[in-house]
Structure formats: structure tokens, C-alpha cells
Amino acid sequence: MTAIAGNPQRNAEFYVDTLGLRFVKQTVNHDDKYTYHFYFGDAEGTPGTNITFFPWGDQGRSGRFGEGQTKVTTYFVPPESLDYWIDRLESNDIEVTGPIERFGETVIEFDDPDGITLALAASAGTPNGHPWDPSPVPAEHQLRGFHSVSLAVSEIEPTADVLTEGLGYEFETAEDGWHRYRSAAGGPGSIVDLVETNRPRGQMGTGTVHHVAYKSQDTAEQEQWREHLSDRGLHVTEIIDRKYFKSIYFREPGGVLFEIATMGPGFTVDQNEDELGTELVLPEWLENERKEIESRLPSFKSPSVEPDPDVQ
């Protein structure tokens, strides 16, 4: 999941200090080299745990939520962790909506500092990823992977067709206007919910999600997806090298931008695991511009990590 934030310092401190995620990678947007690209995930940056941001700065254009955008990004938490998270969020002056019941699971929702809506779903499933020992959140309560994503569209069927016939999802059930689809593989991060909206087309900017990413094992599988989706009339990009993975992109009929990214080579191609996120790293093709890039990026300091004071 990749979204657009405002102030980079505020963004990083919220996702590390408040949500307890690891700051996995500090680099730049390859399509806009004077904008940071931050990655937050589990201890190793395992695929399926990473939420990433392009922080546009305090002067960046504000986005507007609407049709063709992500409505809610939901993390998995064990049922016994929900009270911990309610207390933690409220103690940090974050307004929590819920708990509510959705598809037989208890869910709470809240906004990050830029207005991006996040949720925690209490589920008995097995979490993805690996706990991060220095996290301010105890290991048993850490966010270790996505549960689901909900997309706002004007009509369910065109997007549902891409999910089922294009990406192999299966319709599961509908409840209170939410239509749930699950990938055949199952497990964490396998759910996409579609919700109809009568809002106008959303405007990309601070406080909105830029795109939703799916995984492929390698470029051979990626090429198969590219051919399959193109045969269904979707415009799919060529494979693009993002250093830590390779990507293809396409926009589904409802307006949401999708990415299919390879599982590797991963975040340790340019840093050891214990060094992840500690300094700005650039792809080789931008390294000779480092001085200019650093001079134009906003001032930023990696957030310090303080243990949860309630943990004995």
C-alpha cells in the first residue's frame, strides 16, 4: 500500500512511535527524485506488511477522497490485542471509531495525521511477518501484516470483474453495502472489499492512497499477469525496476491504480538487516546526484524508538 503524506517527520514518527512499525527503508520516489519514499513494515520488511509513503511536505496539494480510491487500509491483530490498541491510540489523542462488527470480526478505525483511514481487525488468523524487537509495541500486539483493503467505486461490477476474472479473487459475501472478495491463496492480506460511493472521482494528494500492490513471485509470473490482463483490455505498463522489486501497473475500471510487484530482491540488497531505514539510500542510477537530491529534500531525522512505558 502506497499513500501520500504531508510532513515527513510527522509521518515517520506516527508509524514508528505510535503504530510500532519498523522504518524499513528511507529512499526517494524514483519518478520524483526530490520526494522521499518511506517504507514501514515488520522486522524484515516482509511483503504483505509494508505501508509506504511519498511525503509531499507541508506545502503539498491536499487530496480529496472519492470514487476510485482506497477507503480503508486494515491491519490484522489478534483478538486479545484490540483493547491494547484502543488504549494505546486514545492515549495518543487519536480518535477511535468502534469497535464495530464487520463480516463476523471486530474492527476499529482511526485516521493517521494526514487523514488516511486505517483499521484494525481482530482475527484469529495467523499473522504475517516477524516481530521487531526494538518496537515500542510489545511483540504480541505488533501489526504484522495487512488484513484487507477496501476500495470505493461508483459501480461494483466492473471492478469485481477485474478482481475475479483478472486477478483470481472469489466473491465471498456482502454485508451492509460492503462486498468481500478473497484471493484463492487465502491467508493474511488476501481480502479486498468493494464499497459503492456517490462521491465524485477522488483527487490525488496528501491524505490519499496512491496505489494498491499485489505480489508475484518473480518476473516470469509478472509477465504472465501482464499478458493476461492486457488480453482483458487493460493497459498495463512495461516492467519497471524499483531496485527492491520489479513492478507493473494498471488502472482498473473504477479508477483505482493497481501494482503487481515481485517478491525480491528485497530490502537487504543495499543495507544489512540491522541497518534498514537508518540512512537515505539511492538507486545506482541516482547516486551521482546524491548531493543535489539531499539539498532539495526536506529536513528529516529517523524517529527514535522508545519502549512502551506500560511494559514491565
Automatic annotation (TrEMBL):
Region (Disordered): 293-312
Protein name: Ring-cleaving dioxygenase
InterPro entries: Extradiol_RC_dioxygenase, Glyas_Bleomycin-R_OHBP_Dase, Glyas_Fos-R_dOase_dom, VOC_core
Keyword DNA repair: no
Keyword Oxidoreductase found: yes
PROSITE patterns: VOC (PS51819)
Keywords from the named record: Dioxygenase, Oxidoreductase
Organism: Haladaptatus pallidirubidus
GO terms for MF: dioxygenase activity
VOC domain: residues covered: 1-123, 145-263
